[in-house]
Amino acid sequence: MNLQIQIIAVFLAFVTLSVPGCKSGEEQEPPEKHVKAETDDANTIFLRPDLRERIKTGKPFYADIAEKLSVPGQIKVNELKLVQVGASFTGRIVEIYAHLGDSVSAGTKLARISSPELTQAQLAYLRANSLAVLAQRAAMRAQQLFEEDVISAAELQRRESELQVSNAELSAAKDHLRLLGMDNQAVQDLTKRGQILPSVVITAPRSGTVIARDVALGQVVQPSDQLFTLADLSVLWVVGDVPEHAAHFVELGQHVEVRVPALGDTSFDGTIIFVSDIVNPLTRTVTVRTEVDNPERRLRPDMLTTVNIDEHARERLVIPEGAVVRENNEDHVFIAREDGGFTLTPVKLDEMINQVRPVLEGLTPDQQIIVDGAFHLNNERKRKDLE
């Protein structure tokens, strides 16, 4: 029994001496190859000689930046060159000459209308013309008789007064015919021949394109009805809606670029000719309007557009696009330290304009930064962080 106890004791002593780290008075040290070099800031990196050749340093600088304000827009007819054509009296359309899409000139026949009112007006004119002729003869006869001392001065004055009234009635009857659509030539023909016209022609008051026709053959129309709409499509309006917070950037005369997605993003140049003085309470926008030439008729009313408004250039602190590192959905730059290192620092930047980024927050003009090659430097920083 004592022999077994001795054997077990010797075995335990052997095992104890064989296990590493169990020696008294000694401390276990990890292998040097497993020790990781740590820095006080994972966002800081020091440049190796080979990396210095791939980057450039510099400072933020000031530049005149003309930004673009992009707003949705729509092409509209130039209202200054828009004409609504209607009837001057109640009547029936007996002929239609112009149709949707037709190009017409001033004086072109659009439709023909007949009406009892037109007939009555012509009768009234013929009657007034006859009375005026009689009054003229009576006045001339009275003048001769007065000179021969046959009638008194009072009688002469009465005849002359009747002539003035007759002429006034004739002039009013002629004006009525013109209001009803009869031109001067038609009135002269009526005076000479005394033949009443059963209808008159509705003509185009100016050149343009028929963009709407709201009348049918045989339709009875009223003076308030709009029969044709004519528009000059060679010059159109582009109306944009500027958010109220950006309205102070917009003023008359500013250059705009109009892009039309329906035409393959084709652009047209123009200038702002109108800025509304009020805000739309529903959309919280301010209406602006520009005028664009349309000689080839590629633009059509109601097309959707994007209106890019050039703001006036102003001096802003900027950095090159190559200085920017995008991390965690934020913009960063490498800022130089006094010990020669560079620290990745978050900043707030505006959108890129002409290959530079305006600084909103986080940089000053006297700070030294990486202006080119920041992407390579950031990759090196990430690689070091993984080692």
Please tell me about this protein's structure.
Among the domains are: 44-63 and 315-386, conserved putative lor/sdh protein from methanococcus maripaludis s2 fold (Beta Barrel), CATH 2.40.420.20; 70-79 and 232-310, Elongation Factor Tu (Ef-tu), domain 3 (Beta Barrel); 114-197. The protein is 27% helix and 35% strand. The protein has six helices and 23 strands. The chain has helices at 2-18, 49-52, 116-147, 153-179, 184-193, 374-386; strands at 44-45, 56-58, 61-65, 68-77, 82-86, 91-96, 103-104, 109-114, 199-203, 208-213, 220-221, 226-231, 235-243, 255-260, 266-275, 285-293, 304-310, 314-320, 325-327, 330-336, 342-349, 356-361, 369-372. The longest helix has 32 residues, at 116-147. GO terms for molecular function: transition metal ion binding; transmembrane transporter activity.
Topology:
Elements: H1 2-18, E1 44-45, H2 49-52, E2 56-58, E3 61-65, E4 68-77, E5 82-86, E6 91-96, E7 103-104, E8 109-114, H3 116-147, H4 153-179, H5 184-193, E9 199-203, E10 208-213, E11 220-221, E12 226-231, E13 235-243, E14 255-260, E15 266-275, E16 285-293, E17 304-310, E18 314-320, E19 325-327, E20 330-336, E21 342-349, E22 356-361, E23 369-372, H6 374-386
Antiparallel strand pairs: 1-21, 2-23, 3-18, 4-13, 4-17, 5-12, 6-8, 6-11, 7-10, 8-9, 10-12, 13-16, 14-15, 14-17, 15-16, 18-22, 19-20, 20-21, 21-22
State the gist of this model:
With 387 residues, the protein is an alpha+beta fold. 27% of the residues lie in helices and 35% in strands. The two termini are 59 Å apart.
